């Protein structure tokens, strides 16, 4: 949460282990898709926007985590707008720090309306409304907080279960990073084995599979006469797609990071833990950077080992975000 708050939301000092957003976001994730408003909106999608207004109206008199989180983000966006205005007036914009919230405010335009964009032979410029700016921040903080942590838990389990793969990863870290505390962006980018390990973990457990869902903006037909009406939500079955033996081979059930060194065109189109296309997860690269850095810091000093209590299989739970029920491993001090 501290990383997300500082990188994305303009928090200018560390609040690690004392960040008030942690408990609030946990509450949001707990009730997400698990309350009567979501229940009836799923049964009757057309009344969804009305139910949203009702829920937010009730939030004025009753604690509703999503409402509180959104209100805080509106306040954060307003504060950053004021800071940017002051910075510009002092002509010190080049000296100011720039984070994610600045990037999305740069494309703010409340006059824009959403719709279908024809991109053939033309340049499309999509601006963001106030509501969309807050929505992007909301997704960043909700998805960025839990997904990276859960993926790291899954990664620790796979490394404990596959010591030879872990050894290769440790060797790459030793070769590129050594025991240095500071790791450069270029060094992170050169760690190819770390890349394929993370991708293989996400192939097995795409923690944010909901990112591959879309809303159809105009009637269309796909495949063998499958008609999809306007405003219909479509979700991709990643768990079938990521283990399809016709795509990934007979060893699709195995943990084999090396498969990502030479993906076929079909495999590239079938790997969707972050969604794809124009609405690819905005935090994908940040998630990879976070996980790489944390793995480096751990594996510079420890091996992740299996023990008598380590799970034979990981049990995944959760509603919107996939969560390992528990991950039990031990850390063994490395001798350099």
TrEMBL record:
One of its GO terms (molecular function) is heme binding. Cytochromes P450 are a group of heme-thiolate monooxygenases. They oxidize a variety of structurally unrelated compounds, including steroids, fatty acids, and xenobiotics. This is Cytochrome P450. Keywords: Heme, Iron, Metal-binding, Monooxygenase, Oxidoreductase. Heme binds at residue 281. Belongs to the cytochrome P450 family. Its cofactor is heme. Pfam families: p450. SUPFAM superfamilies: Cytochrome P450. The keyword Oxidoreductase applies. The keyword Amino-acid biosynthesis does not apply. It comes from the Eukaryota. InterPro entries: Cyt_P450, Cyt_P450_CS, Cyt_P450_E_grp-I, Cyt_P450_sf, Cytochrome_P450_3A. The lineage of its organism: Eukaryota, Metazoa, Ecdysozoa, Nematoda, Chromadorea. Transmembrane segments: none annotated.
